[in-house]
Design a protein that fits this description.
Number of helices: 5
Strand order of the largest sheet: 1-2
Radius of gyration: 22 Å
Bound molecules: heme C
Number of strands: 2
Distance between the termini: 49 Å
Length: 135
């Protein structure tokens, strides 16, 4: 008896908490328009920040990395004294890149309930990269 009562109370209070939070939680149009709902990301029964592996259940990281591979470019630097030109591949693909490969968390850049940011811009001038802003 006591157990059922506690369980019922727990369910009620978490449903209540969820609806209160839901009221102040506008969802991004990229997902809402596609019918991706709250619990497809928040799978633990609580509204906690969502782990990258949950995003990857729908978004294939390898395919993503292939799609944005086009952003990598050949960087050329000319030595003004010798005229020598050095070339190297600048790996700026945000889904597989120079610093961390494929290991960075999606939500470092793509946010759900607030504007997304390009994390690289903390240190680099990303305008020069011709990259779209992350949605
Ligand atoms: C596409 C995945 C996704 C969907 C769908 C989604 N969320 Fe989130 N939610 C996140 C992520 C990621 C965060 C972490 C913060 C951020 O991105 O702004 C978060 C954070 C939250 C938080 C704050 C948690 C904390 O402790 O900071 C609440 C509350 C929340 N979401 C509620 C909702 C509600 C309500 C819905 C449905 C209307 C919803 N979420 C739909 C991904 C999602
Ligand atoms: C239940 C499946 C599902 C989950 C989980 C999910 N997404 Fe999505 N996401 C979609 C669908 C469907 C679309 C729209 C079609 C598309 O662009 O792939 C989309 C679109 C997007 C887009 C916009 C793509 C564009 O160019 O319009 C981004 C960015 C994105 N998701 C990131 C995330 C991140 C980050 C997470 C984890 C916090 C996440 N998604 C979790 C299904 C999901
Ligand atoms: C360092 C920042 C960063 C991280 C981390 C990141 N992205 Fe992106 N993402 C971007 C940028 C920037 C674009 C737009 C690139 C362009 O097309 O110019 C993008 C594009 C996308 C798109 C649209 C691709 C297309 O062209 O159809 C999806 C979907 C997406 N990201 C999902 C994810 C998911 C899922 C993760 C985690 C596994 C992730 N991203 C991690 C910055 C990031
Ligand atoms: C905390 C600061 C910081 C952040 C955030 C950061 N970088 Fe860097 N990055 C550096 C520094 C410092 C260097 C030069 C030293 C080195 O090569 O490690 C560098 C070098 C690079 C290089 C090599 C230079 C070249 O021309 O080939 C690439 C490519 C690069 N970063 C890409 C990125 C991308 C893409 C992101 C975002 C996903 C990013 N960085 C985020 C600090 C940062």
């Amino acid at each position: 008896m006591k157990f059922t009562y506690k369980a019922a109370l727990l369910i009620c209070s978490s449903v209540f908490a969820m609806s209160v939070q839901a009221a102040g939680m506008p969802q991004s149009s990229k997902h809402a328009q596609r019918g991706v709902n709250c619990t497809q990301c928040h799978t633990t029964g609580k509204f906690e920040p969502v782990e990258t592996k949950q995003c990857q259940t729908c978004h294939n990281q390898d395919q993503l990395a292939q799609k944005t591979d086009r952003l990598n470019y050949i960087s050329r630097m000319k030595n003004p004294k010798t005229g020598e030109v050095k070339e190297h591949l600048a790996r700026i693909n945000p889904h597989d890149r120079y610093h961390f490969g494929k290991t960075e968390d999606c939500t470092d850049c793509h946010r759900e309930h607030r504007p997304s940011v390009n994390d690289c811009a903390t240190c680099h001038d990303v305008k020069a990269w011709n990259m779209k802003d992350p949605k």
